[in-house]
Amino acid sequence: MKQRVCKKEDFAVFLAKWNQVQNYTTPGMHFRIATWLQKSWQRGNVRLLLQAFRASGKSTLVALFSAWLLWQDPDLRILVLSAESRLSRKMTRMIRKIIEKHPLTANLNPKNPDQWAVDAFTVERSRVSRDPSVMACGIYSNITGMRADIIICDDVEVPNTCDTPDKREKLRERLIENDFILVPGGTQLYIGTPHSYYSIYADTPRREIGEEDIFLKDFERKTIPILNERGESEWPERYALKDIDRIRRMAGPVKFASQMMLMPANILDSRLDPALLRRYDDDLVFQEIQKTAVLSIASRKIVSASAWWDPSFGKGTGDASVLAVVYTDEDGDYWLHRVEYITATEKAGEDMATLQCQKICDIARELYLPSVAVETNGIGKFLPAILRRELADAKIPCTVIEKNSRKAKDVRILESFDAIMAARALHVHESVYKTRFITEMQEWRPSLTHMKDDGLDAAAGALSLEPARIRKQYGPITKLWSGSGKGHMARTDFDI
Fold first, then answer.
1. CA 196, CA 41: separation in Å to the nearest integer?
2. Where is pLDDT greater, at 489 or 252?
3. Rounded to whole angstroms, how far apart are CA atoms 202 and 213?
């Protein structure tokens, strides 16, 4: 890292003088941020991330820091990127006002302000450049051909840029292009708060979506939640503990954790909260006790099982083919043990339908499934016959049940998950967390179209097949793990 020399007064002094002009006092938290910004700049750190709770004044501090940097070196070029042009112009306007009003920056005001606009302006400088001193752009603006010594990413992550997997991927792709705008040795400074569990600011990789490293790898971080490790307010002059409690109650626990404590979480309204799930990593155990087959999970005896296959041959952005397996124990708890997104490698002489059915057969054998329900809407009409054939060839004693879904998908999902999750009665296996099922649950909202919910839909189907049970108080022990030795089909008016 190339060390930089501070030619003029420290940023903390610059900050204090500005606040004095504005008749403000400078809180200790702002001095700590100012010190971190200056020391990072002097050490030559070119990759910085500042996270501070909402309404902490971080954007104003970075605007002052930008003015201070121009005071140190008027030839610098600063690009401000935000989720929307309106937000970036707000930052640029603040920098310009500071330069106009600060007692130390009078020499930066140009004699002929031909470039002194809200979205771009140029200070008095010695170097001739086609790029302005400060320019504001939206994150998706066309900035090809620009060059910058410093790029400030101010609130590039907001709900509109991160509320779906496609938007998050698009945001990351765009931000990677910053390296082509920066001059060699240029600085990137991110400021913001997380708006998604899969935030660009996350400090651990999200393995379930294929991340090997965090997005802002090798960035020096300064993170200031509203409460410190001792439970004290970081800005007690403005936010007393009673004020923080009020904010927590009004915002709700998830939004408070994300926006005030800087813990990445899904802050969008959702009917399905993964925090209500009970995670486990126990295997399915098969035993023969007194010549009776018994299945158990975590020492809990299993009394029934349901599997629901929602087939698809779609590729890319199409629907996924998903099998969900749910067990119920004798106390009435549900165990979502497998959510399998079916993929099959094409083989010579084998069609894709047969290959997928063979994969279902393997899972049926592994998990001792007594039956598999196949959703016959659409392409599923001809699959039950193929699956029966493959099960028979593999000598797997598993029944195939044909199901036609008539209810709207949103209704099916809500009816299956809502009450069970509210009762904290749904256990989810560790392997399911490694799929995109949890992402689907975090982002699912009723009536929102173009949403990935294939895993949710399959799991809802499996749950709908399981009977409601109450905790056993008395009576004989179930002889077979799947219930009695005989089956009975009842006629009902219910639509599944």
1. 29
2. 252
3. 10
Residues whose CB falls within 8 Å of the CB of residue 218, separated by 6 or more in sequence, listed in order: 47
Model-level pTM?
0.66
Residue ranges of domains in the chain: 11-259, 274-465
Residue (of 383, 389, 277) closest to 333 by Cα position: 277
Element (H, E) at 461: helix 454-465
User: Are 66 and 152 in contact, with CB atoms under 8 Å apart?
Assistant: yes
d(CA 205, CA 212): 6
Q: How far is CA 403 from the centre of its chain?
A: 33
Q: What are the tens digits of pLDDT across the range 4-14?
A: 878 789 999 99
Structure tokens at 232: 């004290």
User: Tokens 């299956």 — which residue?
Assistant: 416
The one-letter amino acid code at 434 reads K
Which distant-in-sequence residues (6+ apart) come within 8 Å of 62 by Cβ?
37, 50, 91, 152, 154, 189, 191
- H-type helices in 74-218, by residue range? 85-101, 159-162, 165-176, 178-181
Q: Which H or E element spans position 48?
A: strand 47-52
Among 458, 445, 413, residue whose Cα is nearest residue 308: 458
Q: Tens digit of pLDDT for each residue in 407-456?
A: 778 878 888 888 888 889 999 999 999 999 998 888 887 766 567 889 99
Decide the pairing of beta strands 182-192 and 148-154. parallel
**Under 8 Å between Cβ of 190 and 49:** yes
Amino acid identity at 109: N
At residue 340, the 3 state secondary structure works out as strand
Residue located via tokens 């629907």: 319
Give the CATH number of domain 11-259: 3.40.50.300
| Contact criterion met (CB below 8 Å) for 322 and 353 | no
What residues have CB less than 8 Å from 342, skipping those under 6 apart? 309, 311, 320, 321, 322, 323, 356, 359, 360
Q: What's the CATH code, domain 274-465?
A: 3.30.420.320
C-alpha dist (Å) from residue 445 to 277, 339, 449, 451, 465: 17, 20, 9, 9, 23
Closest C-alpha among 271, 308, 297, 319 to residue 417: 271
pLDDT tens-place string over residues 335-374? 999 999 998 666 666 788 899 999 999 999 999 999 999 9
Q: Measured between alpha carbons, how far is residue 261 from residues 66, 279, 439 in Å?
A: 26, 24, 21
